[in-house]
Design a protein that fits this description.
Length: 293
Amino acid sequence: MNAQNENQSTAATTGSATPAAASSAPATQARKIAVVTGASRGMGRAIAIRLARRGYTVGIHYGSNADAAREALDLVNQAATEAGSGGSGFVFGADLSEQDPGLAFWSAFDTAAAEAGISPLADESTVKIDALVNNAGVFLAGGIAKADTSVLVKNLQVNTIAPYSIVHHGLDRLRDGARIVSTSSGAAKGAAAGSMGYAMSKAAVESFTKSLAAALGERQIRVNAVQPGVTMTDVNKQWFENAPQVKEQMVAHTALGRVGEPDDVAAVVDSLISEDMSWVTGAVIDASGGMGL
Ligand SMILES: NC(=O)c1ccc[n+]([C@@H]2O[C@H](COP(=O)([O-])OP(=O)(O)OC[C@H]3O[C@@H](n4cnc5c(N)ncnc54)[C@H](OP(=O)(O)O)[C@@H]3O)[C@@H](O)[C@H]2O)c1
């Protein structure tokens, strides 16, 4: 089967850019549902676009930037239409810097899904999720002398605790055979003296990935992580504008001779979610173009 339209045979879709139009479509679970956190911008947006192209109905999560999320929704629906995949998107917001954000996250998801005409099957209590991408993240720099524990906690909250909380409160929402992919970072590979809290938060994501893969294997749920290198998103924009030599240094340390684009990483996530990777779980895949080899 064509990988791009892998789910087309089971996809029933709204294919709509607006919740109002979407709600007129039949509520059905035949379609595949994906949730991508931090999908309003950067890599998350690129991942959502890829999954919609593959036929998923994608829950596009954002933190506070509703405009960016609406822009992402338009691109997601456009990509699905162009691919003829039957995919689509809908948007929901939830702040992941709260103490235990999973409950509010799924509550916001439920409200937005219902508005988009997606409701649970008669014999199911919740909308079931086929793919979950824990992508939302923050980068707060600082080494041991400069950064106090509040910096560490802020990194951990969004990057580590939120994915844990979302999965914890979402266990019964994940369909058996679902796929989970989390976004780690090259910073977790080794020493990162200048961004210690961030690196720690991502190292924990990799530990979470392995433990979760072991825990959910009996349900045939595959759990993996990607490890991007420096990728051109809002996180790096100002940094590179202020210090172009930094970008040059990054390129010099990357085997493939450039920094990453969001879709470079999205392609790896998409692949991990696909059937082609059905024998891969508990893996952390480098997606950096060979950075720091
Ligand atoms: N860019 C890189 O070079 C790089 C390298 C390695 C790993 N990573 C990791 O890759 C992932 C994506 O990074 P990116 O560069 O694509 O990020 P980005 O462009 O800065 O986008 C961050 C996303 O996370 C969401 N988010 C941030 N704080 C949030 C909060 N408190 N609550 C809810 N959502 C929140 C944002 O929502 P809003 O739009 O609403 O703010 C946005 O959708 C992150 O986990 C990052 O750590 C990035």
